[in-house]
Write a structure and sequence with these properties.
This protein has helices at residues 2-19, 31-45, 60-66, 78-88, 128-140, 190-195, 200-203, 228-237, 240-250, and strands spanning 21-28, 48-55, 72-77, 92-97, 99-100, 104-106, 121-125, 145-146, 159-161, 167-171, 185-188, 206-207, 216-221, 255-256. It is an alpha/beta fold and 258 residues long. Strands 2-1-3-13-4 form a five-stranded mixed β-sheet, with helices on both faces. Helix 2 (31-45) links the parallel strand 1 (21-28) and strand 2.
Length: 258
Amino acid sequence: MRTLTASIIALATLIGAARAETIRVGVTAGPHAEVLDVVRKVAAERGLDIKVIEFTDYVVPNQALAQKDLEANSFQHEPYLKNQISKTNWKIVKVANTIASPQGVYSIKYKKLADLPEGARVAIANDPSNGARGLLILSEQGLIKLKPGVGVTATIADIAENPKKLKFVELDAAQLPRSLQDVDLVSINNNYAVQAGLNPAKDAIARESLEGPWINILAVREEDKDKSWVKDLIAAYRSEPVKKFLDTRFKGTYIATW
């Protein structure tokens, strides 16, 4: 009887293992990786095995997804994805919104934007969507005016009015925190701000509003969007343990949107 019972247990274990599906999900190092680690634990309890693959830039995670080195990624907002697709024709689609992360601008020289002197140097990201994001914050705060209708495609060339004659420096997003010592104001993606020890909810001297297109997303290849593991991944991400982790770990820096 013991032998039979042991055999049944072994068979059940093998069946469970066979049903477990493994997917590789790309993230940028830092907060997105921390959140996905919680998602991984929730998914494991539901029969989905997630291998978290970390990257140090914003370009490679979509390239790796398109080339089938990943099954999904979680690191970007939709305007960034659309911009990359426009240049590459990658067959990648959004399957869910995840977290909101209002971006901020920082200064170690000035405590408010009104204190910026004429000719102040301002660093923004050199990728189109995140560069636009920095410009839109300044536009919302009245430091510059942009040409009508440019929105998420705004570039430095779209600045219609610049009364303080701000001088813009475009840098790789990962390098922006380091530029705090060299410029007067920096627009930094929250992922890199947190890695640099900044708290966007407290340290930013201005932040963008939550009303906008900058909510982060889960993305997969178009051919996979209807697969069952996609639904399982979304459900694990939008679970209560993940929401609690966001609330306790990031305290307003990263906010659940579900």
